């Protein structure tokens, strides 16, 4: 399928909700409370991608908390304490085929899309499936 050579930037989602490492966990909670969200939130500092937080990471950190924003874990916990460091990302000029190759091992389900380290979007396995269905 020749369309697999299209740039990954053609199917990525943007703009993307992001957080800073110093933000409290309540800010992540508010992102996840939205009706439409990615299960992965890029962590950005000075425009550069420095980490990722998955819904699983967040749930592990707050599993004993209720929904009240004033719960101590939401106010005292920081993004830096739950984020994955040095996330795998893909350059915006990479092909969709390259993206599928990264997803194929099943380790992750979303990739931040960067332009020389600066976050410009995110692509998920759902984006890939939509692409394939459109072009099959």
Question: What topology does this entry show?
Answer:
Elements: H1 25-32, E1 40-45, E2 48-54, H2 55-62, H3 72-76, E3 84-85, E4 90-91, H4 96-103, E5 110-115, E6 118-124, H5 125-135
Parallel strand pairs: 4-5
Antiparallel strand pairs: 1-2, 2-3, 5-6
- The CATH class label is Alpha Beta
Number of strands: 6
- State the fourth-level CATH superfamily: CBS-domain
Structural class: alpha+beta
The major beta sheet can be summarized as:
3 strands, antiparallel
How many distinct domains?
1
The residue fraction in helices comes out at: 25-40%
List low-pLDDT spans: none
Question: How would you sum up the global shape?
Answer: elongated
Please give the count of helices.
5
Q: Could you tell me the CATH topology label.
A: CBS-domain
Describe the strand arrangement of the main beta sheet, using strand numbers: 1-2-3
Question: What pattern of helices and strands is seen along the backbone?
Answer: HEEHHEEHEEH
Compute the CA-based radius of gyration: 16 Å
